[in-house]
Specification:
Strand content of chain B: over 45%
Largest sheet of chain B: 7 strands, mixed
Largest interface: A-B, 26 and 25 residues
Number of strands of chain A: 11
Distance between the termini of chain A: 36 Å
Helix content of chain A: under 10%
Shape of chain B: globular
Order of helices and strands of chain A: EEEEEEEEEEE
Radius of gyration of chain A: 14 Å
Largest sheet of chain A: 7 strands, mixed
Number of strands of chain B: 11
Oligomer: heterodimer
Structural class of chain B: mainly beta
Chain lengths: 116, 119
């Protein structure tokens, strides 16, 4: 099954841009990845799904236009432009794996984004 | 609006049992697959179990297979997780999540309920 790797932390200044990375292990280069935002003490919030062609489907409810995604090779990226204080969160990537008779979901370790 | 409210968490001794519930509102519960996902303190997310809309298909993570049982009552708009033979490593916040109607991801999550397994 796929393994998703995320750097544990990232930081960016208010108003700047940041790109978060989620890396798939080899053999899974065609997989789509889902990004989730999680604020302290809250449940995760779906951001959007990304494949090598970019966004797949629609963004989650209320996700601003400042959030975008792209994919290349084994990496799936979440870019946040004009960062606001409310963007300070943990960001998780996840992926489903399997077929109709067995499904599992895997997640990366999460990246804590600090807004400076 | 979509709401998912977990309950039933608490402190339990190793080997003990606990039943979690998730009350759903704001959408037609029977139209969506559901799942439980957990997060150990300071750790990432770990998928636990999935149940289809009609209860016909159920999957478990290997880490809980044989100990946990997922179920749902579409008439009561509720999702459940029966957890038996609990271990210290089951300590986590447990989230219920709604599955998307277009693909296999989770489009709404609850706030979570904390399960602590300790003697």
């Amino acid at each position: 099954q796929p393994v998703l790797t995320q750097p544990p932390s990232a930081s960016a200044s208010l108003g700047a841009s940041v790109t978060l990375t989620c890396t798939l292990n080899s053999d899974y280069s065609n997989y789509k990845v889902d990004w989730y935002q999680q604020k302290p003490g809250k449940g995760p919030r779906f951001v959007m799904r990304v494949g090598t062609g970019g966004i797949v489907g629609s963004k989650g409810d209320g996700i601003p236009d400042r959030f975008s995604v792209f994919g290349s090779g084994l990496s799936r990226y979440l870019t946040i432009e004009n960062i606001q204080e409310e963007d300070e969160s943990d960001y998780h990537c996840g992926a489903d794996h399997g077929s109709g008779n067995n499904l599992v979901w895997v997640f990366g370790g999460g990246t804590k984004l600090t807004v400076l | 609006q979509v709401q998912l409210m977990e309950s039933g968490g608490g402190l339990v001794k190793p080997g003990g049992s606990l039943r979690l519930s998730c009350a759903a509102s704001g959408f037609t519960f029977s139209d969506y697959y559901m799942a439980w996902i957990r997060q150990a303190p300071g750790k990432g997310l770990e998928w636990v179990s999935y149940i289809s809309r009609s209860l016909s298909t159920i999957y478990y993570a290997d880490s809980v297979k044989g100990r946990f049982t997922i179920s749902r009552d579409n008439a009561k708009n509720s999702l459940y997780l029966q957890m038996n033979s609990l271990r210290a490593e089951d300590t986590a916040v447990y989230f219920c999540a709604r599955g998307s109607q277009v693909a296999y991801f989770f489009d709404f999550w609850g706030q979570g309920t904390l399960v602590t397994v300790s003697s």
